[in-house]
Design a protein that fits this description.
By secondary structure, the protein is of the alpha+beta class. It is built from 3 helices and 6 strands, in the order H-E-H-E-E-E-E-H-E. The structure holds FE3-S4 cluster.
Length: 105
């Protein structure tokens, strides 16, 4: 007699959370002070996009109550986001090393 026993699959949320904790950097956007110059979206379009309200958003970020945004990123994505931060004329993009807590920019 055949008895079907489906394999136990762990929920994706646990896997995603585990990956998030391993990511080395966090990008932060002080969105209330963004003037919408769009340099970030031009230099790092995989991470930054312009919103209908004229300001940028971090793609896939966590939106906080104070309207700032955060996204944890891998080391391989540091350079693109550092370029975005360097290109912002009002310095509203920040990058923090999650391990050392150092604010890189
Ligand atoms: Fe805003 Fe600076 Fe980008 S002003 S649109 S975060 S380059």
């Amino acid at each position: 007699m055949f008895i079907y026993r489906p394999k136990l699959i762990f929920p994706m949320t646990e896997q995603v959370q585990a990956q998030e904790t391993r990511k080395k950097f966090q990008i932060q956007h002080d969105r209330p002070n963004c003037i919408g110059c769009a340099a970030c979206a031009a230099v790092a379009p995989d991470f930054w996009e312009m919103n209908e309200d004229g300001k940028s958003d971090i793609v896939g970020s966590i939106k906080k109550d104070d309207e700032t945004e955060e996204l944890d990123i891998d080391e391989k994505d540091f350079a693109a986001n550092k370029e975005a931060a360097d290109s912002c004329p009002v310095n509203v993009i920040h990058i923090v090393n999650k391990e050392t807590k150092e604010k890189i920019i």
